[in-house]
Write a structure and sequence with these properties.
Order of helices and strands: HHHHHHHH
Distance between the termini: 9 Å
Number of strands: 0
Helix content: over 70%
Shape: elongated
Number of domains: 1
Number of helices: 8
Structural class: mainly alpha
């Protein structure tokens, strides 16, 4: 168990909490203020800086999951190797999908901005490709949920950290998985509980260093 790995986990957990807070501000304040959701190209291009914030947050989420994965493996692999290995596979997939979604999303915004207003049809077609970025993001979020769920199960078996922390992680991960089918505003329960879980996780990593 390396102290540097535990510090990485602590930083990742804090970054995860901050990223989720950022997403909350983005969805509840920044997007509505910029006129979203909207299919009006003028609104979309006028709010391009706001949309960039959403894509940059994906990189923060990806980095946080990568760092948390390093810390969790260091802490629990000796006790629950199978669960942690599966969790790390999910985390690796989540990082890749979120980075791909962010890169593609930023590129699409740049291309649409170049086409508009001279070529409105191409600008609109480019923006419509956002369904791909949304799908990549959704896949990344679901794999991130599996990372939290599986690592929490491993932590619960190890009995190293408080069972309440891991139980919270199991509930948060399960709600994140269910976010695709939960109606508003209940789909927000998973991210909100994950913020609490991430802060508590950071505290435990700090104590273990």
């Amino acid at each position: 168990m390396s102290p540097s790995h535990l510090r990485a986990g602590m930083l990742g957990a804090l970054l995860l909490a901050l990223t989720l807070v950022g997403y909350t501000v983005y969805e509840l304040i920044l997007r509505p203020r910029a006129g979203f959701p909207s299919d009006d190209m003028a609104v979309i291009l006028a709010g391009i800086d706001t949309l960039r914030v959403g894509h940059w947050l994906k990189f923060g989420y990806a980095a946080s999951l990568a760092l948390v994965s390093v810390g969790l493996r260091s802490r629990f692999h000796a006790h629950s190797p199978t669960s942690i290995d599966l969790a790390l596979l999910a985390g690796t997939g989540a990082v890749a999908l979120l980075v791909a979604s962010g890169v593609l999303g930023l590129r699409l915004l740049e291309e649409a901005n170049l086409f508009y207003p001279a070529n409105l049809a191409d600008a609109r077609s480019t923006i419509l490709i956002r369904v791909v970025t949304q799908s990549l993001q959704q896949g990344g979020l679901l794999l991130g949920a599996w990372l939290i769920l599986l690592s929490s199960l491993a932590g619960l078996r190890s009995r190293i950290w408080p069972a309440a922390l891991h139980s919270l992680g199991i509930v948060a991960g399960s709600l994140l998985l269910a976010s695709l089918v939960l109606p508003a505003p209940f789909y927000a329960l998973g991210p909100l509980l994950t913020i609490v879980y991430a802060v508590w996780l950071a505290v435990q990593f700090r104590r273990a260093v």
